[in-house]
Design brief:
homodimer; 550 residues; alpha/beta; Nitrilase/N-carbamoyl-D-aminoacid amidohydrolase; Rossmann fold; 7-stranded mixed β-sheet; 6-stranded mixed β-sheet; 37% helix
Chain lengths: 550, 550
Amino acid sequence: MKIALCQINPAIGALSANAAKILDFAQKAHDLGAHLAVFPELSLTGYPPRDLLEKKEFVEKSLQTLHRVHQKTPLPIIVGFVDFNRHPIGKPLHNAAGLLVPGESRLQVQHKTLLPSYDVFDETRYFEPGQKIQCMNVNGKKIGVLICEDSWAEELLWEKKQYHTNPMEVLSQANPDFYINISASPYSLSWFHKRVDILSKSVRTFKKPLLYVNQVGGNDQLIFDGASLALNGHGDIVSQGKSFKEDMVFFDLETQTGEGLSQYPQEIESCYQALQCGLSDYVSKCGFKKVVLGLSGGIDSALVATLACDTLGPQNVLALFLPSPFTSRDSFEDSKAMTINLNIQMYTISIDELFKIYRKSLEPLFKDEPFNTTEENIQARIRGTLLMALSNKWGHLLLSTGNKSELAMGYCTLYGDMSGGLSILGDCPKTLVYALSKWRNSKKDKPIPQRIIDKPPSAELRPNQKDEDSLPPYSVLDPILKAYVEDHASGAQMMAMGYEAALVKKIVKIVDLNEYKRFQSAPTLRITTKAFGMGRRFPIAQGYTQEEKG
Amino acid sequence: MKIALCQINPAIGALSANAAKILDFAQKAHDLGAHLAVFPELSLTGYPPRDLLEKKEFVEKSLQTLHRVHQKTPLPIIVGFVDFNRHPIGKPLHNAAGLLVPGESRLQVQHKTLLPSYDVFDETRYFEPGQKIQCMNVNGKKIGVLICEDSWAEELLWEKKQYHTNPMEVLSQANPDFYINISASPYSLSWFHKRVDILSKSVRTFKKPLLYVNQVGGNDQLIFDGASLALNGHGDIVSQGKSFKEDMVFFDLETQTGEGLSQYPQEIESCYQALQCGLSDYVSKCGFKKVVLGLSGGIDSALVATLACDTLGPQNVLALFLPSPFTSRDSFEDSKAMTINLNIQMYTISIDELFKIYRKSLEPLFKDEPFNTTEENIQARIRGTLLMALSNKWGHLLLSTGNKSELAMGYCTLYGDMSGGLSILGDCPKTLVYALSKWRNSKKDKPIPQRIIDKPPSAELRPNQKDEDSLPPYSVLDPILKAYVEDHASGAQMMAMGYEAALVKKIVKIVDLNEYKRFQSAPTLRITTKAFGMGRRFPIAQGYTQEEKG
């Protein structure tokens, strides 16, 4: 029995298009001799459909679409779909896997048992957990079907064991011939290797092959890496799908061998590819063709320009250089050099006069109050307004270029440099921005001028300004931010890591104070285990500080 | 036995301050002869603490604070707090009610059984449901203690019955002398009456008094109305706390009578008070004193100015009038008249020159492309930049004045009129804005010039512009938006309501397309059952349309 692992990139809610894609892959799988084709979690609706699930009409149409797919599929397929909960009590829906066999009118269905409700996941908002766990049957084989989180019962994942049931253990009692997990598991740095560890550990426990089929593609903040896996009964990877691209690989049940074995990229490369995937899909799924961004001469906008160019092609990337009186000659030269390297168009508009008129307009109010962040913010907002004008006039998507360290510290201007439809680096700490830039520059075209990488970072919003005037060095700041934002470390824990109490206290306070800015930030591509945005939900008006004595 | 219902306004996370407030109320209750004082759900941390709950240190400190309160309370109190889940499996926390009796070292604890996970509620993200449901004992009386949602098992609330257990029914088997529900139930229009219906229905079923103690105050988007209730064994209200204000009312168990009986305001008045409460608390809990807003001469900014003035006092409200070439003389006169009525300061800054320079700066790019929404947006963004400059320089909170109809239709400018720290009317449809203004003007000071109420609404961003050039009349638009946004009505359902297919289709498409704008909007005070923001989670990049054939 030959099984096709079909990692597709569905668009959220695009039922007909997703159905067509499923049937297209199914046909190819059939043509290549497969007896079963397997698709990711919620493959018909795309994952996550979020509050589209609250529209009853949407769920009804998705079930009609499932029926059409069932009628047309040339071979048995397993598809993720949204099912109604037919029990009179509970949440209205189930997250379901359906086995659709041509000629059999009834579906075999398994409902997801373990529903993630943490970080970016809200499944208990919509779904009732499955009650029955039982095998499916096709071609005389018995399959234990799991849906994503159903495989994460494993204790080593959790500080405290989350789930009362281990669905794989329950399934194992029926002695299936193999297991399938259909998944939509978002990328984060190093998560792939953890995922492999857990899946192989499961296989070593239950001693049967496990086919893991993961969604691929970007949906708003979330990036799904694909990299589907076929593990033989010993837990070895015998086939693996591409990363961040649609793919189909195969597993032969009798010989326990695979067809198609991609390698997962190294960490920095995987991050670069993830950002490309997130950018590319946001642009295309929102119906854009071209993007625009502001080049400052700094590393963040340089990296975003390069990423955009690598992803969308130079003809679809437009740069604006918007100098103020504080912009250095170097910044202009470096930006210019880079646009030549990348072969993208750059317009220059000076913001001097606008800045002057703003100051003049405000003079009757501000009188002789000294220049401070207000005037810095005005410059950033002039740039935001010019970039948005271009975006509005020509329909280009404005990319926001700020990084995670800035966003954490509020070292950025709301409605200024934070403007944009998508934040590319908003989950990349500054030190990672450097690592990504250096990695990209290790390719022979070396697009980013070395001076951009070497010079001390500056916002250039006042004379001789350097980031380090306001912030600790990024090599110190970033690990503290990681501990605090990603790992919820306490003050005591951070001091135990060797950081000064006063510094930790200051950083924590600044991060907390800037919740209001992040609340209004553009959607940010998520590449760590805790990105700002949908997966991090802090109150703005709140009084907790680490000094609270308890 | 005399019981005090203490509806307090905690600040999220402010453990010491909340503890002090609890002890203060407890002392007053004791002085007034009470034998038990009851506080709202999660009264120690404030509701909702959101991801503060992911900080273990925060939970530990809140438990230490609870211990301090226990040592100091002069009478038995029931307090809402966060408990650790001591079972080895499951979510790490419980949403708990604790009975703290002076001199008894052990707490009596009840964990919340029904955890809401819908709309603005994310309780399954943090909490494990309680397993045991049992009565508490104090003063020789047996009390059945419920926590908020525990009383909403009632079927008539749900299209599909949500919960498998009815905690009140379970408690009733132990035959308690009375019930207490500690709650944090956010305001929405008409929800108070539904709440009363459900609570009275429960009392009529279980035939024992029920004391309902609700949080009061605004926390970011959410506004809690208080209006705590004591229902005697027949389901009659014998005492009721104030709306939107801290209060203490009493119930005497033996005589089944109350002390303190406020009336709930009529719907429009309740909405006005809710907005005041949300604004007042956001300002004070974020540490602001003063606010600034742009006056346009239109009804939205007029109402916000009036609300701000009524709430914070005229000395704390600053208005900017920012005319462009398209601003009418009427707009100036009306704004001026209103600031005189309200006794607030107004500065005028013309945006003519800035607008000209922006256009000149962009001319090399735009050449002779015609004036369109790009140029309208530039005007709005100039105003946003000026208002934010003032906010930055003087530390005033900028209030965003847009309404829900605009936000739904994207008839507003991101980084322009959408700028601000808090959106006051973002959940008020335009027709409600009129109703609120007329209600406020029915008071004898009549602050809003009648012409503002009478004239056709206009953004004044191009010559002779009227909202109705781009939008259907609000009397038609608002009911369609309510059906679509609040009730998730399908196209067919909206047509059955009597609306034209083409109009419904157009509106639905525009609402969906503008998800990206709302993603970056300021936190919006919630006054309907479905506000934009934390309780409504739609994907941006998505392909579902009501034309999808299924």
